[in-house]
Amino acid sequence: MASATPVQEIQEETKCPICLEYLTDPVTIHCGHNFCRVCITQHWETWTEGDYDPLCCPSCRARIQAGSLWNNCQLANIVEKIKHLDFKPGGGNLCERHDRALDLFCEEDGETVCVVCWRSPEHGSHSVLLMEQAAQKYKTKALATLQSSQPYSCTMAALLA
Ligand SMILES: [Zn+2]
Ligand SMILES: [Zn+2]
Ligand SMILES: [Zn+2]
Ligand SMILES: [Zn+2]
Fold this sequence. Notes:
Layout: H1 6-13, E1 26-29, E2 34-36, H2 37-46, E3 69-71, H3 73-84, E4 104-106, E5 111-113, H4 115-119, E6 128-130, H5 131-147
Antiparallel strand pairs: 1-2, 1-3, 4-5, 4-6
The protein binds zinc ion (ZN) (4 copies).
């Protein structure tokens, strides 16, 4: 049985159920689901009072109230990292400068690097993880964020600091 890699799993978790792209400007609604701000706003706008169906969360069908949402800055942070972990196995992932496989992830810069980049002064003092390790780490963080129905405050210390 083929199992998804941590990167693939987390990519699924950080996509918007409406547009199926990575969450852009993610917001949390009160049932705890996350959507792009634009997507959920459109969902509200296309629903009109008096429709047969009550206004529901597109994910879980919970009754929701138009306009009630929270910024989810921590999730936004994670999505940014995950985008950079969008690792496509089987090529196309060579370092432009060194022509080596981009299989490392610099946490400081939030970008994939090759082994030559890693040894360079530019990243010398940075913490660099193997792609798999980075994926596992951000997956854990993203799941913790996604599974909490509590909206986060944007002033909280950055999760990934
Ligand atoms: Zn969306
Ligand atoms: Zn929901
Ligand atoms: Zn390189
Ligand atoms: Zn770096």
